[in-house]
Amino acid sequence: MVLKEMKSTLPxxxxxxxxxxxxxxxxxxxxxGYYAGYPITPSSELMHRIAARFRExxxxxxxxxDELASICSIIGASWAGARAMTATSGPGFSLMQEAISYAIxxxxxxxxxDIQRVGPxxxxxxxxxxxxxxxxxxGSHGDREVIAISPWSVQEMYDQTINxxxxxxxxxxxxxxxSDEAIAHLRERIEVRERITIFNRRKEKGAPPFGAGDxxxxxxxxxxxxxxxxxxxxxxxxxxxxxxxxxxxxxxLASRLHxxxxxxxxxxxxxxxxxxxxxxxxxxxYGFTARSSLFAVERLRQEGKKVGMIRLKTIWPFADRLxxxxxxxxKKVFVPEMNIGQMAGxxxxxxxxxxxxFSQTNGEVIHPYTIMEQLERLL
Amino acid sequence: MGAVKQVRLCGLGxxxxxxxxxxxxxxxxxxxxxxxxxxxxxxxxxGSACRSEVIISDEPISFPHVIExxxxxxxxxxxxxxxxxxxxxxxxxxxxxDPLVSTKEINGLKQIGIPATNIAxxxxxxxxxxxxxxxxxxxxxxxIVTKGALISAVEKNxxxxxxxxxxxxxxLGLNWEME
Amino acid sequence: MATDVRQYLRLEAPPMPFCPGCGDxxxxxxxxxxxxxxxxxxxxxxxVSGIGCAAWIPSPHFNADTLHTLHGRAIAFxxxxxxxxxxxxxxVISGDGDLADIGGNHLIHAARRNIDLTVICANNMVYxxxxxxxxxxxAKGVLTATTTAGNYYRPFDLCKLVNAAGATYAARYxxxxxxxxxxxxxxxxxxxxxxxxxxxxxxPTQFGRRNRLDTPKDTFKFFEDKLITKxxxxxxxxxxxxxxxxxxxFSNGSx
Lengths: 379, 179, 255
What we know:
The structure holds three protein chains of three kinds.
Chain A: E1 3-7, E2 13-18, H1 19-29, E3 34-37, H2 44-57, E4 60-63, H3 67-79, E5 84-88, H4 90-105, E6 110-118, E7 124-128, H5 133-138, E8 147-149, H6 154-171, E9 174-180, H7 181-184, E10 187-192, E11 195-199, E12 230-232, H8 247-262, H9 265-268, E13 271-274, E14 281-285, H10 288-302, E15 307-312, E16 314-316, H11 320-329, E17 332-337, H12 342-350, E18 354-359, H13 368-378
Parallel strand pairs in A: 3-4, 3-5, 5-6, 6-9, 8-9, 14-15, 14-17, 17-18
Antiparallel strand pairs in A: 1-11, 2-10, 6-7, 8-16, 13-15
Helix pairs in contact in A: 1-2, 1-6, 3-4, 10-13
Chain B: E1 4-12, H1 17-30, E2 34-39, E3 49-57, E4 71-74, H2 77-83, E5 93-97, E6 110-114, H3 116-124, H4 130-142, H5 147-157, H6 160-174
Parallel strand pairs in B: 1-4, 4-5, 5-6
Antiparallel strand pairs in B: 1-3, 2-3
Helix pairs in contact in B: 1-5, 3-4, 4-6, 5-6
Chain C: H1 23-38, E1 45-49, E2 65-68, H2 74-84, E3 89-95, H3 96-102, H4 104-113, E4 118-123, E5 126-127, E6 133-134, H5 158-165, E7 169-174, H6 178-190, E8 195-200, H7 204-210, H8 216-226, E9 227-229, H9 230-233, H10 238-241, E10 245-249
Parallel strand pairs in C: 1-2, 1-3, 3-4, 4-8, 7-8, 9-10
Antiparallel strand pairs in C: 5-6, 7-10
Helix pairs in contact in C: 1-6, 3-4, 4-5, 7-8
């Protein structure tokens, strides 16, 4: 069986964790065997907790010399058989982009936690932002498919980190937990369950490690298992032999890497809806902003206003069908973001209705009253 | 709707505001409440104005930051001035460090002065634990968490070598006789 | 008797890409000879390489686990694999441009941490695969695609660099010294901790051609004339040693 039920590493019960601590505990619960990172605000507490807790669990922790080394070493560890992870923030995430592209091409399961801070560049290190949404999707060259998840609570920093490992192993793809400073530094009560479900890497002796498998995702052997693996991010055959001049091999590989995710998007994508049934205006929000939005929507509903909300839990692959169907039913969608319309632009691609983008990039979270004011104008 | 209490602790970096917030939040967890807490972070938290917010609720918390404080605990003038306008006007309570803070009259707002820093200095010979004194007093006045929950939260969050002193300070606050 | 190294090669791989007279082809054979003499099982080996001609020595030709990585990052990838599975015997094989220029930071930090890796750096003083640009290891005055008036800067002394950073074993030999090089590779493979060998591996196509060294033989002679053993170099002045390549072992004292 590839799915395995495990006992949680923490005793079940309530905890008062920060988002960073919860993500670290989620990684430990998901049996993360190797973590490498480079300190950066506002993600560092995640690494501190990993460093302390891995001493108890026996997993391997490394503080590397930079973000390039961090992500490359987790890719090496993943091929050696580890569930592997790193965490960073925008500037470090930028440095990791070339290696994320490498992990996509070599189908290496890794988890990257990106605690977003407001940019561009150094920006404000202790202030939240949402400027990495498109970087997560298009941050390096080539047509790339990744999975990116946006948690909105400390509980989800725990749950979705476990989910991120499962998705990475299931689809052999980098999974990005697109969080931000506001969630990472928030402390909340979280509930740790007694049992969690873990996806174990599928193995099949002698099977092509870069073949199509049953569903576009090949089994994944590890170094040291006698498989004499050829791993390369140059265009390669199903056994990993470089084919850098063959248009057919290139086209086939690029297409499989795309469709192995896109064709499974209904399986991967998670979202929530609130009061959408009779809504005239629907807020589409994610991450911390969805907390502000839901507060605003609930208040307006109490006043009898026909507003609703969709929360995108999965950012990439994008929930195109959901947005297309929603847009056909409602007059307007309102998209509040801590960036200048990055997801609003994506929503405009699919929603056959008015899409109103609201941007706030001042390093503050968007206040519920701000969203209420904006919605009242649209009603 | 169950009870939701929004608490804002504020003062200067170095007064232990963030720790007091974390301890209050932990105490809420000990009482089986839903809790959300956030604080000033990084270099910003040292020396200048510093704040820590805690929301304690009987139900899961939708928006996790303070929108309007039910309880404001202020340990410096600048922090008081910054946050006093954002206190619930009818049932709100302000607890301030007297005489570090001088108040301004606001209609109907209950404002209670506590010489927390002086108490810590005279009774415990250590101004550093004024945060625990004022936290103990605030809990005693507002009953926002139980005494037992607060004491066990101090035990969990304070390093071993400072534990006895902090426990003494918080108990001093919890048992302080109001004039 | 020369070792038959075909048993260690992936015979289904395409023909080797090395140009006529390339030092890397000799280096490939010498590495496999050392492995054969130590009777190491190729199933226990992991070969990690970066980008460049020398990175193609193990990938895809060695019949073992191979990880062909990003430009400059081979050592970082190798560090993760080795630390997660210490049973793997990990050898990094790449060029001077890859390991010392773009990847220099990873090289010094792996040496500092004394990670149990063997790093073989094929030094041809030039960027072979990308068209003959200057490398940080190039001697002063040499002509390359980007130093058409002769290289202005000093070369990196990679053995000194890794030694200063704390490597357990460091050595420099030329592919024209096969016996010494085989025994050095064997030593490196048996070293616990970070071991590093800089191998002088001439590139007749990109380096030779641009420096009026019209045949592979001329290119090899150019390098051979520069070689001087550590013992012979002792007592010579810096001026006398300028533009010479000192060969030998430069161990850190701890081995």
